Amino acid sequence: MISFSEAQLLAWINPLLWPFIRVLALFAGMPVFSQRNVPLRVRIGLALFISVCAQASLPPMPVLPLDSLPQLLGAVAQQLLIGLSMGFAVRVVFAALEFAGELIGLQMGLNFAGFFDPSTGSQGTATARFFGTMVAFLFVAINGHLLLINALVQSFQVFPVGDEPLRFLRVAQPQVWGAEVFRIGLWIALPLITMLMFVNLVLGVISRVAPQLNVFSVGFPLTVSIGLIGMTATLPLMHQPFMVALERLLAVFS
Question: C-alpha angle 224/229/235, rounded to 5°?
Answer without folding.
Answer: 120
